[in-house]
Write a structure and sequence with these properties.
This protein is an all-alpha fold. The chain contains eleven helices and no strands. 75% of the residues lie in helices and 0% in strands. The radius of gyration is 24 Å and the shape is globular. The termini are close together.
């Protein structure tokens, strides 16, 4: 198991380096924003570009990037979004809003998704199952940003239960701030609920028809006892790792949702860094999302062994 973990970490770092290298090359093929557009900061921008080797061959720039950014932790300063300010400091200041809305969305969606999936499996082929399955198909098919527009129109505009945009400020743990985050939480959570409910229903239906469940019933266990003690436990083996994957999916999906609801998080910053060609922000945020996604894959694989000790990853 230890050798397997080391191997997966080494592969993760290799894939991470390949992805970041591709991003670096592609973004460097784009033209730089002329320094004359920065007015009084023109000389400062020119000095920083010279330090980062903007006028040197691409391979030299790549070496400077590896040494200063990936290894040294110096991601440079913003050139267009926050002119002259340190990229890392801005990123850290934006990260809490993104993580907060994603954690809230997971806390909202995971229990509901599991309960709906379990209930649909127990009511298989009845009207309850058909109703839940229809809702699942709708929310799985509809993109998150479309759901966000419906939430904004009905809950925020028509019913006026919630504000259209997140409240300004960084006091994230007040009731008013939480209420302003609810539309974004719902928009992120509906897709996760649908995906998790569909997967839970499929796994539990398969387990409920297994031979060991028939054996448990013949030993005198009631249907409820057999379901709780055996069916749910066995079906959670593939479901729990999926929850980790859903969290990563929510973080990726929140790029647009944060923009729609005015959440001052990492998502809008990433989109703006692309449209404004702020290369330092783009490389930092690309590294962040790539690292999160690759780390989640390792956690998903390792979680199988913790849930079921009989599973040993990397065994022949």
């Amino acid at each position: 198991m230890f050798k397997y973990v080391l191997k997966r970490i080494a592969l993760m770092l290799m894939v991470f380096l390949i992805i970041i290298s591709i991003c670096f090359v592609l973004v460097k093929l784009l033209p730089n924003t002329p320094a004359t557009q920065f007015g009084k900061d023109m000389q400062l921008i020119e000095m920083r570009r010279e330090a980062l080797g903007y006028n040197k061959p691409l391979i030299v720039q790549y070496g400077i990037f590896l040494q200063k950014s990936l290894l040294g932790g110096n991601w440079g300063a913003s050139e267009s979004l926050y002119v002259g300010q340190d990229v890392w400091d801005i990123f850290i200041s934006k990260l809490p809003a993104t993580m907060l809305v994603n954690v809230y969305a997971m806390l909202f969606s995971v229990p509901i998704g599991l309960l709906l999936g379990i209930y649909a499996a127990l009511k298989k082929n009845r009207w309850q199952d058909h109703l839940i399955s229809t809702g699942i198909m709708v929310f799985v098919s509809v993109p998150g940003f479309v759901t966000a527009f419906f939430v904004q129109y009905f809950l925020c505009h028509k019913l006026q239960w919630f504000p259209m945009q997140m409240l300004p400020g960084d006091d994230y743990f007040t009731w008013a701030m939480f209420m302003s985050l609810v539309p974004a939480i719902l928009s992120l959570g509906f897709g996760t609920i649908a995906g998790l409910a569909r997967y839970t229903r499929a796994e539990l239906c398969e387990v409920l028809t297994s031979d060991f469940m028939l054996l448990a019933r013949t030993k005198g266990l009631t249907r409820g006892q057999a379901t709780v003690r055996h069916a749910l436990r066995n079906s959670m083996v593939p479901i729990f790792p999926m929850i980790i994957g859903e969290f990563i999916g929510i973080i990726g999906g929140s790029l647009i949702i944060e923009q729609i609801f005015g959440i001052p998080g990492v998502g809008p910053l990433y989109i703006k860094s692309i449209t404004s060609r702020d290369y330092n922000f783009y490389m930092l945020l690309s590294s962040f999302y790539t690292f999160i996604g690759l780390s989640a894959n390792i956690l998903v694989d390792l979680s199988y062994g913790f849930i079921d000790p009989r599973i040993r990853m990397g065994e022949r």
